[in-house]
Amino acid sequence: MTLKPQYEADEDFLLPQEVIEGIQCLHSTVPDEAAALIEYFNATFVSGQLRHSDEPGVIIPVHLCRTPPVFPPEKWNMFLAASYYTTRMGFERYAYKGLETGSRDVCYHVIKQNKILFVLASALNPGNEEMGRHLVTHGDGVKDIAFSVEDLDAIMKLCEINCLALMSVVLQRAKERGAKVVKEIWEEEDEGGRVRFARVQTYGDTTHTFVERGNYNGLFLPGFKKTLIAVDKILTKLPTIKLDFIDHIVGNQPNLEMESTAAWYEKHLMFHRFWSVDDTQVHTQYSSLRSIVVSNWEETIKMPINEPAPGKKKSQIQEYVDYYGGAGVQHIALNTQDIIQEVQKLRERGVEFLVVPDTYYDQLREKLKSSKVRIAEDMDVLQKEKILVDYDDNGYLLQIFTKNMQDRPTVFLEVIQRRNFSGFGAGNFKALFEAIELDQAARGNL
């Protein structure tokens, strides 16, 4: 623990892939008497245990037959991820829960930007089966999407009850409709007050946690304290980012599971269908998708549900399902009031976005000539920044997508600006698919 502050302040610590490369280097350079120690560390914490073939004395090649390590580099801590989001995306370290605050099993870093809150979690001890199993199967991803009970106003109106009793009703109604309850109502408290929670299972291994804060006035949630890490001086030299709130969260499903997933939200959480497209509307030469957007009563929560449709080659939805190991969150859309300015500043910070071909903008200019809508932003600037435009007769949206946020081609982010437009960029799906297909081809997955 005495080295922890120094490690966290050191910009030269190794990334997970560099740890693997470092172990490989050590294997070839350490003296024979240290080889066993290096292999133990490699098997337990880095690459996993070597498996032997059925033929005595023959070891199957390492890259094919190592079992998953108990505690891989990606599970060591979430400091790296928190550092990325603060340095690249402009988030601030907001709250912390770990060994220093009494959490002995899991460490949490909360990062914040306006109304956007991400909680990054990692196991503190070897043998954490739940987190280890999830990480080995899915890699870095979104495990839980939390809903504030205050957002479920329709339940309050239907039941005509006060907020303090709402949690029981939410959970009871979900249970009555057959939802799988991962964890019954529990309470946590500290000097800031008491908070009640409950958790249900949704698609894949993803869960929803209901949070009833009541009159809690602590920093974040019980047990969380102000971050222990000093403000990184490099952040003062970077442009300030202004992303305001989560616009929507997209979940990808295996083929033919979209309808049942959408029905789950309708039945268990009383959501309704807000918007949809099918593969006749969204397709490229190689691939296509179907999508249904579900929303709560007041339409403050929107959850697009995607599935791949058969095509000549593998769609980006199917690629996600293959690498994530099933259904899960594909991307999180972050709303802003000035997408051009924010994208330019994010690029300055080193964020990489998908590249859209210039032909998209040539076609867009032609289509807009016969449209009632007028785009206020400079089209040349939108083209330079590779920002997409979708529109109808009443308004338009501007959107752009980051490249994948981790090694697996799974989770990414979207930056979106809306101008009197509540759609989800159906007019851009073809351009988005084609941009992703370029990256898929580079990965050998198209």
TrEMBL record:
It catalyses: 3-(4-hydroxyphenyl)pyruvate + O2 = homogentisate + CO2. GO terms for molecular function: 4-hydroxyphenylpyruvate dioxygenase activity; metal ion binding; protein homodimerization activity. The gene is Hpd-L1. GO terms for cellular component: endoplasmic reticulum membrane; Golgi membrane. This is 4-hydroxyphenylpyruvate dioxygenase. InterPro entries: 4OHPhenylPyrv_dOase (IPR005956), 4OHPhenylPyrv_dOase_C (IPR041735), 4OHPhenylPyrv_dOase_N (IPR041736), Glyas_Bleomycin-R_OHBP_Dase (IPR029068), Glyas_Fos-R_dOase_dom (IPR004360), VOC_core (IPR037523). It is a peripheral membrane protein. It is found in: Cytoplasm; Endoplasmic reticulum membrane; Golgi apparatus membrane. Belongs to the 4HPPD family. It comes from Homarus americanus (American lobster). PANTHER family: 4-HYDROXYPHENYLPYRUVATE DIOXYGENASE (PTHR11959:SF1). Keywords: Cytoplasm, Dioxygenase, Endoplasmic reticulum, Golgi apparatus, Iron, Membrane, Metal-binding, Oxidoreductase, Phenylalanine catabolism, Repeat, Tyrosine catabolism. PROSITE patterns: VOC. Binds 1 Fe cation per subunit.
